[in-house]
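step=encode ok
step=design start
structure_in=
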C-alpha cells in the first residue's frame, strides 16, 4: 500500500477537484499546486503550496516552464525501494511526491473551435502535464496518478477504508489509464498537425491518423462461432449513437446483433415522424412512418413478415404497451429491440421474454466524424453519408409530373434506400416499404427481387414509388419496375444513357425525378 503524504494537483478540468483536495487535506496530505488550480483551492480553504515556492524556481516563459524541475520529477520518479535512489533524493533535498492529479490543456476542444489558428493550437499543447503523468504512471509502484475526475470518489473511498493509502491494483489500473490518456492526447495533436497543408489550412484527412476506442465487452464470437470478437466504444462518443446504449434486459449481445442494431438505429433516427425500422442481416426489410409507433410497426412488419422473424426492430420514440401487445399477437420473435425509451407497462411486459435484448439509446444529434473500413494491411476512411435530399433539390426529368403525395413517398423511399446495401431498389407507398431489393450485382435483379418480396407479402405495387440508390445504366431497370406497377421513380441520374432511361419512363407514363446524389452502401 502507498500512504499518500504529498500530492501535486494541476488540472484544466476542475470538476470535483475542490472536494477531492478537501478529502486529501482531511488525511493530512500536503498539497502542491500551480496557477489557477492553486487559487481555486485556496479560495475554498484548502492549504496549498505553490510549485514555484516548493522548487525555489519561479514560473517562466509565460507559464511554459512550471513543473519541469528536478525537485518535481525526482520526487515523482524516485524508487522508494532502491537505496541509491533514496540516498540521491536525500542528498539533493528532494521529498517524495506520492500522488499526481493532472489532466491536460484542452487541446482537442481548442482546435475544434471555429477560427482556431495554428498559433492558438500550439499554445494549448501541454508539455509539463504529460511529463508528470508519464513519470507518475511509470513509477506507479510507488506513486498514484489520477487523470480522470470521475475517479475521485472511488479513490476517496479507498483511502477512507485503508487509512489514507492506495493499493497496488488501483495504482496499476490508474497507470494504464494515464498512459492511454497521454497517447490519446498526443494522437489528437498529431491528427491536427498532419492535417495541415503547406499554407496551414486544415484538410479532412491527416497524413497520420490516430484514434482510440475503449473496450466495453468481449463478445461470445464474431460473425461466425470460430471468430473472436469484442465491442469497443469511441473515446469521443457522438451524441445519439448506438454505442450510448443501455441494455435493460436480455441475453448478451452478439457481434451480428450490434452490427444490425446500428444499421436499424442509424436509419430510424433520421425520421422526424414516428418511425419503425426492421433490419435483417444488415438490410432494412421493413420501414414505415405513421402518426404513432404502433401504426409504424404494423406497416413495417407488413412489408416482409418472413424476413422480420428474428430481426432487429428500432423505434424513434417511447415504446408503449400497445406496440408490445401487437408484437406478441403476431408471435413476432425479435433478437433486439431499440428505442429511446419504454413505458413502465412495456418494461413489465418484457419480463415474460427474458431472452429479448432491450436497448435504450438516447436520441441526439451528431455522427461519426469519419467512417472506417479495414482492408488487408490498411484502412479506408471516408466522411459519413449524411446527405438527405430536399423537395426543392429534386429535378423532374419526365413529361409526367409527380403529385405532392408521390413526392412524399419518393422522398421516403430515397431515405430508406440510403440504408440498403447496393444495388438497392426500394418500392414504397403510403409511408411504408412495399418491397426491398438489396445487395445484388445487377440493378435489374434487385428490382425483380423487390417485386417478388412484395408479392410474397401480398402487397400490390400498383401506383408505387421507387428509389434506386444509383443511376440506371440501361432502360431495362425502368421496364421491370414499370411492369411491376410503379408510378414514379427517384434516382441520382448521371448515366451516359440517361436520355434512354428518361425516354423509357415517358414511354411507360412514369414520373421520374433525379437527385444528382447517389447512395452506394457496401
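sequence_out=
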Amino acid at each position: 500500500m502507498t500512504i499518500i503524504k504529498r500530492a501535486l494537483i494541476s488540472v484544466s478540468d476542475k470538476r470535483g477537484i475542490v472536494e477531492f483536495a478537501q478529502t486529501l487535506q482531511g488525511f493530512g496530505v500536503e498539497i502542491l499546486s500551480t496557477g489557477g488550480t492553486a487559487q481555486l483551492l485556496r479560495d475554498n480553504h484548502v492549504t496549498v503550496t505553490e510549485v514555484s515556492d516548493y522548487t525555489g524556481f519561479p514560473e517562466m516563459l509565460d507559464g511554459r516552464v512550471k513543473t519541469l524541475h528536478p525537485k518535481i520529477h525526482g520526487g515523482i520518479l524516485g524508487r522508494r525501494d532502491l537505496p541509491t535512489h533514496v540516498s540521491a533524493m536525500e542528498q539533493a533535498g528532494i521529498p517524495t511526491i506520492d500522488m499526481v492529479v493532472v489532466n491536460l490543456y484542452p487541446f482537442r476542444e481548442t482546435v475544434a473551435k471555429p477560427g482556431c489558428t495554428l498559433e492558438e493550437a500550439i499554445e494549448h499543447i501541454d508539455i509539463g502535464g504529460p511529463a508528470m503523468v508519464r513519470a507518475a504512471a511509470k513509477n506507479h509502484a510507488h506513486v498514484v496518478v489520477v487523470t480522470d475526475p470521475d475517479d475521485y470518489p472511488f479513490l476517496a473511498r479507498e483511502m477512507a477504508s485503508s487509512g489514507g493509502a492506495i493499493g497496488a491494483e488501483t495504482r496499476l489500473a490508474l497507470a494504464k489509464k494515464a498512459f492511454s490518456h497521454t497517447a490519446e492526447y498526443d494522437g489528437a495533436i498529431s491528427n491536427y498537425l498532419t492535417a495541415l497543408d503547406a499554407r496551414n489550412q486544415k484538410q479532412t484527412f491527416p497524413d497520420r491518423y490516430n484514434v482510440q476506442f475503449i473496450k466495453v465487452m468481449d463478445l461470445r464470437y464474431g460473425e461466425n462461432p470460430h471468430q473472436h470478437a469484442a465491442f469497443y466504444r469511441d473515446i469521443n462518443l457522438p451524441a445519439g449513437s448506438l454505442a450510448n446504449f443501455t441494455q435493460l434486459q436480455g441475453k448478451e449481445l452478439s457481434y451480428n446483433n450490434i452490427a444490425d442494431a446500428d444499421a436499424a438505429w442509424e436509419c430510424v433516427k433520421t425520421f422526424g415522424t414516428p418511425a419503425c425500422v426492421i433490419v435483417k442481416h444488415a438490410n432494412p426489410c421493413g420501414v414505415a412512418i405513421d402518426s404513432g409507433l404502433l401504426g409504424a410497426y404494423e406497416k413495417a412488419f407488413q412489408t416482409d413478415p418472413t424476413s422480420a422473424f428474428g430481426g432487429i426492430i428500432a423505434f424513434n420514440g417511447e415504446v408503449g404497451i400497445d406496440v408490445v401487445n401487437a408484437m406478441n399477437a403476431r408471435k413476432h420473435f425479435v433478437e433486439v429491440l431499440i428505442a429511446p425509451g419504454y413505458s413502465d407497462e412495456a418494461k413489465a411486459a418484457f419480463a415474460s421474454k427474458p431472452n429479448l435484448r432491450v436497448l435504450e439509446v438516447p436520441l441526439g444529434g451528431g455522427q461519426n466524424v469519419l467512417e472506417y473500413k479495414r482492408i488487408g494491411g490498411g484502412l479506408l476512411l471516408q466522411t459519413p453519408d449524411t446527405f438527405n435530399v430536399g423537395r426543392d433539390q429534386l429535378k423532374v426529368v419526365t413529361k409526367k409530373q409527380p403529385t405532392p403525395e408521390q413526392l412524399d413517398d419518393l422522398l421516403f423511399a430515397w431515405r430508406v434506400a440510403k440504408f440498403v446495401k447496393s444495388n438497392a431498389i426500394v418500392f414504397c407507398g403510403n409511408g411504408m416499404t412495399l418491397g426491398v431489393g438489396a445487395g445484388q450485382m445487377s440493378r435489374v435483379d434487385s428490382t425483380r427481387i423487390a417485386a417478388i418480396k412484395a408479392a410474397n407479402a401480398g402487397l400490390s405495387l400498383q401506383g408505387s414509388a421507387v428509389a434506386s440508390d444509383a443511376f440506371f445504366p440501361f432502360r431495362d431497370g425502368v421496364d421491370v419496375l414499370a411492369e411491376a406497377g410503379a408510378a414514379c421513380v427517384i434516382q441520382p441520374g448521371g448515366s451516359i444513357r440517361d436520355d434512354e432511361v428518361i425516354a423509357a419512363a415517358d414511354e411507360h407514363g412514369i414520373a421520374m425525378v433525379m437527385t444528382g446524389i447517389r447512395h452506394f452502401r457496401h
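step=design ok
step=annotate ok -> The first helix runs from residue 17 to 26.
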